[in-house]
Amino acid sequence: MAWIYLFIAGLLEIGWAIGLKYTDGFSRLWPSVATGVSMILSVGFLGLALKTLPVGTGYAVWTGIGTVGTVILGIALLGEPATLVKLLCVGLIVVGIIGLKLSH
């Protein structure tokens, strides 16, 4: 269950990171509420995962999922550039996430 909690926490991290863009500096009510709820739930699920996973592994995977997802959605939704270097670096993060999962 810890890995499932960690995956959910990572997805919620993507949600709040992208949500920050839509809050317009927390001046828009509903995007701000959704972003805040995503933040709280993300950290909550991370906490559940860390009950059994090592903190270094859990935190690295959580931020890795958040980073990869945020970069992909930034490209897809926000028109951010998809440069070769950016995509290669995201690939390295994915390899790191897989490596941490396999090493546990």
From TrEMBL:
Keywords: Cell membrane, Membrane, Transmembrane, Transmembrane helix, Transport. Gene3D superfamilies: 1.10.3730.20. It is a multi-pass membrane protein. It is found in: Cell membrane. The keyword Metal-binding does not apply. GO terms for cellular component: plasma membrane. InterPro entries: EmrE-like, Small_drug/metabolite_transptr, Small_multidrug_res. Its main location: membrane. The keyword Cytoplasm does not apply. The chain crosses the membrane at residues 29-50, 59-78, 84-102. GO terms for biological process: xenobiotic detoxification by transmembrane export across the plasma membrane. One of its GO terms (molecular function) is transmembrane transporter activity. Belongs to the drug/metabolite transporter (DMT) superfamily. Small multidrug resistance (SMR) (TC 2.A.7.1) family. Gdx/SugE subfamily. PANTHER family: GUANIDINIUM EXPORTER, SMR FAMILY PROTON-DEPENDENT DRUG EFFLUX TRANSPORTER SUGE. This is Guanidinium exporter. The lineage of its organism: Bacteria, Pseudomonadati, Pseudomonadota, Alphaproteobacteria, Rhodospirillales.
